[in-house]
Write a structure and sequence with these properties.
mainly alpha, binds zinc ion
Length: 253
């Protein structure tokens, strides 16, 4: 029963994340006005705004103008709902569940905005660093010291890499947004997860880059935003970090 509630809660939060994804890059208010169809501008009634269900009932089309509704809506709602369930099963009804769900929700917004606009909004990552640090004072999962080292290591390492890259190749490699994002990841997950996140995201990012180059024939200058890979690496670290580190130590004993 509680699992079902965590899914419904997740879908509702996902619906709000969609609003953030559309409005934050345009610096619009995320509270007012209510949802509108982007094609005909008609306000969307509450019964047409039920996460996942409305999209299915309307066959993915606006009730008024019949233009298609972006598949981003049900995708983000579905992924957020599943994240909520997954975290609930890991942490149970606890503060840890709420904090790490807020963390994953922030990563979902950052990922989609970075894919569309190649930016990571400071309005998410900077408060995120503060929330992570404060949460470490309360949460049993992480100490304040670990969180603080995570911020410094996360922000510092990417800053150094970015500066070196710029110095050697004379062009922008790592955006400042990535630096702040990894600092936020460090605040929530601690310094070990920062190292793991860098390794995982570089690995997955390189593989994806090679696949895109082979499929599209584009060279390295074709910039792929790094934020989604950092986010994915962080989520893997959150769920499987301890297992991966234990496995690594076991293999190298
Ligand atoms: Zn419409």
């Amino acid at each position: 029963m509680l699992n079902v509630i965590s899914i419904l809660f997740g879908a509702m939060v996902g619906s709000f994340l969609n609003v953030c994804i559309f409005r934050l890059p345009k610096e619009e208010s995320i509270i007012w006005p209510g949802s509108h169809c982007p094609h005909c501008n008609k306000p969307i009634k509450f019964y047409d705004n039920i996460p996942l269900i409305s999209y299915l009932l309307l066959w993915g089309k606006c009730r008024h103008c019949k233009k298609p509704i972006s598949s981003q809506y049900p995708l983000v709602e579905g992924i957020t709902a599943l994240s909520s369930l997954w975290l609930f099963m890991k942490f149970g009804p606890s503060l840890g569940y709420l904090f790490f769900f807020a963390f994953v929700a922030a990563l979902i917004v950052i990922t989609v905005i970075d894919l569309y606009h190649q930016i990571i909004p400071d309005v998410i990552s900077l408060p995120g660093i503060g929330v992570g640090l404060i949460a470490s004072l309360i949460l049993p999962q992480i100490t304040f010291f670990n969180s603080l080292i995570g911020v410094l290591l996360g922000g510092g390492s990417l800053f150094i890499v970015g500066t070196l890259y710029h110095w050697i190749f004379k062009r922008e490699g790592m955006g400042g947004g990535d630096v702040k994002l990894l600092a936020m990841i460090g605040a929530f997950l601690g310094w070990k997860a920062v190292i793991l996140t860098i390794l995982l995201s570089s690995l997955i990012g390189s593989i994806t880059g090679i696949i895109i180059m082979v499929l599209k024939g584009k060279d390295f200058k074709y910039a792929i935003p790094f934020g989604p890979f950092l986010s994915l690496g962080a989520v893997i670290s959150l769920f499987y970090g301890e297992e991966i580190i234990r496995w690594y130590l076991y293999m190298n004993r």
